[in-house]
């Protein structure tokens, strides 16, 4: 193409005009070939220490960062916004929901509840908080992925059953929400994938979380549309 342009410039007006027409057509073809919907999506992850990357040596090992990298590797234009606060409960997440939504996300992952279980909080209160969070997101018509959590086994079978039911009930009340029953699926209880506290994933554990979650996060993003600027 460069040779064509040089020849045209040397052979007068007609050749220059032909070269310009060629370049114009080439530009149109490039525009038509560009992928549609390339505008960046904003995915908010509302969570606790697992989202915030507690205990990991480097910030780039945190779940939102690794998830964004995996999505971009698939060719998705997406930015994952870290709204994780270590130690946060469902009540805390409920209280700061409006603040987190000031980031104007196009879709949301709700990843709360682990600290409710660790503290032995009333599952009925957990259920109410989760319902309120999902209600708020539904009112804004934000595509949502809701992740469940399991209670520590030392709290007993009855508590564990009621705690798990809190997440299932909240999900059932919001049929449009994508439900991932256990955030730590495939990682919890495996010493090789957890830090010394056996609660928080290490870098390998985070990678396993991303690998397992990626298909349902893809489904979430398929529902999202970039917000209109301004």
Automatic annotation (TrEMBL):
Annotated signal peptide: none
Domain SGNH hydrolase-type esterase: 46-205
Xref: CDD domains: Lysophospholipase_L1_like
Name of the protein this chain belongs to: Arylesterase
Organism: Plastoroseomonas hellenica
């Amino acid at each position: 193409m460069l040779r064509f342009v040089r020849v045209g410039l040397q052979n007068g007006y007609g050749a220059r005009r032909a070269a310009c027409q060629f370049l114009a057509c080439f530009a149109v073809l490039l525009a038509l070939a560009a992928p549609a919907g390339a505008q960046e999506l904003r995915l908010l992850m509302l969570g606790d220490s697992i989202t915030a990357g507690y205990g990991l040596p480097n910030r780039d090992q945190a779940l939102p960062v690794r998830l964004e990298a995996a999505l971009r590797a698939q060719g998705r234009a997406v930015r994952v916004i870290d709204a994780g606060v270590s130690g946060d409960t469902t009540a805390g997440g409920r209280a700061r929901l409006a603040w987190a939504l000031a980031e104007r996300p196009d879709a949301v992952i709700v990843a709360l509840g682990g600290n409710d279980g660790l503290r032995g909080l009333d599952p009925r209160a957990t259920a109410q908080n989760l319902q309120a969070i999902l209600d708020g997101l539904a009112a804004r018509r934000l595509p949502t992925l809701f992740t469940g959590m399991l209670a520590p086994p030392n709290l007993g079978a009855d508590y564990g059953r009621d705690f798990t039911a809190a997440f299932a009930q909240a999900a059932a009340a919001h049929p449009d929400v994508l439900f991932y029953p256990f955030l730590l699926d495939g990682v919890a209880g495996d010493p090789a994938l957890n830090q010394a506290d056996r609660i928080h994933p290490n870098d390998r554990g985070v990678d396993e979380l991303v690998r397992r979650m990626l298909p349902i996060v893809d489904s979430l993003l398929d529902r999202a549309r970039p917000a209109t600027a301004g």
